[in-house]
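Let us work through a complete example step by step.
Step 1: write down the sequence.
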Amino acid sequence: MPMNSTRTSRVTSAVLKAMGLFSGLQMANILCSAVKMKLVALWLGAGGVGLFGIYQSVIDTISTLTELGIRQSAVRDVARSHGSGSRLTLIVRVVRRWSLFSGLLGAVIISGASPALSLWFFDTTGAWWAFTLLGLAMMLNALTGGEQAILQGTKHLSRLAKSNLWGTVAGLAISIPLFRYCGYTSVILSILAYALTAFICVWLSRLRLPASPSPGLGTIIREGSGFARLGLYMACAAFVTNTAHTIFIGLINSYAGTDELGFVQAGDTIIVRYLGLIFTAIGMEFYPRLAAAGHHRRAMQTFVNHECQLLLTVLAPLLLLFIVLREPVVRILYTEQFSVIIPFITLGALSSIPKALSWCMAFTIVSRGDGRIYIITESLDAIISVPLCYFAYTLYGLTGLGVAYIIWYIIYALIAGAVYYRRYGLRLYRSTLLLTLVSSGVCAAAVIAADALPALISAPLLVAVSLSFIYPLRRMMRR
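Step 2: predict the structure and record it as tokens.
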């Protein structure tokens, strides 16, 4: 059942605002990260970069399970209670207690294991204090994640974005003199500084609650068990995905060597991280809106179709511009040596079209709290991706890997679609499927034109086609 014109326009404007806000935020975060690692490489050398990798991998590995995925799963409960004063107050207090518990759990585990971790990584127990400080950083990260989930669930997106930005900038500002004067010790101090500034900034922007009695332990456990269970499923799914990616990296490294692995990693970063900015940005607004719809089938179906159409309308012209600018993008981000990845990123970028469909439909699984189905779909995705991408690469190189990405996301769209259609009884509108076919055809034709025609002809042509998408976008905002 379509939304009325006024509501469609309002939702479209809200989504585009969130997309612009969080795309800009992520670009700023990437820039700060690039500056940080550049200074580390300049002043501390490869050893400093390696230390960052060690400490970050320890945090990621332990926090994946101890933080119970609260940063993502709690958004659903907060969004559903938004608008109900007393219920929202209770859920927010419960989320904060669970965040504190998960943070303390991670800190205790990593602190208790600090001598063993120090011995494992550095062949001495003398660096135990660094891993203990990592435990403090993990606790701050857990508290920060809880506050961010609350802000996202209550749709205080501007507050959330500003706190993230200022936390990152402040962390970088504190880290710069540390890198310059504190040697290798600055690495762990920088991680702690980033965690502390992020928490301070989000705490200053936190949702203020009216005075009320604190919930008892039984209430905290009962009310929080739902998002904690869902978060654990999401954490397990993330672990499976990360494991699959690690296996794929190991296979490529053993087959082709470290240099070729570097090309694969560089291309994957452009396709997944940089082109994926738009997915993450729109999801900040889409997820709480879909979660608030609960089990209202028509509302969820309308939101998913609207999101698919808007995402495709925005994504298609961006892909056309990316095809035009692919060579300078590679030179700016890397060096001329990395021009070999152009066929990979060109074809791999087209996978964003089926990814848009699968991404929107998959959000229904999380918004319904269907944890077991979520981990099944993500595990199937991981199991399919590794052999598909590896054998495509061994047979046809980087070009074959780009084609594998397209097939991979088409298969995942079919998996998500099966759950969307069969389990939830939802459907994609004919207009959504038609827009998917048109976007796919236009982008595929653009790739052919860019490769077959001189740049002086193909570039203006593709830019003109990308600008033509402004009209349907404005129509979506006004209808």
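Step 3: interpret the result. The chain has a mean pLDDT of 84.
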